[in-house]
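Continuing the series of single-chain predictions for the mutant panel. This is the parent chain; the variants come on the following pages.
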Amino acid sequence: MSAGHRSRAENTTATAPSMRITTTRTGRGSHVVRLAGEVDHDQSRVLESALDRAVADRPARLVVDMSALTFCDSTLVNALLKIRVSARAAGVELVLAAPPPQARRLLEITGVDEIFTLRGSVRAATGG
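Parent structure:
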């Protein structure tokens, strides 16, 4: 990575052995919130709080990196729909990156794939 495009971890929250959230600021004015492990009802408050904090920083673009998800249910869909409203109000572009097959299927079944911008990788989502 070149010096102008370095990323640095800003906040890591481990909530349970099943989920980990890491927020990183990129050199391109984006925040990347990486979700790893399982997202279900037990993690809803922590997930929504992490997304709210990322939007509150008002980056030009907020990328939700889904590449390390091993499981998700409607909890994720609900959190994404809530943060979409906040992001729009704050003028923050929201992009979902690299959803694994199960997560992509959930987005398709619920129809939310039609209202979110989806990219195949974090690099594509951040414009890098």
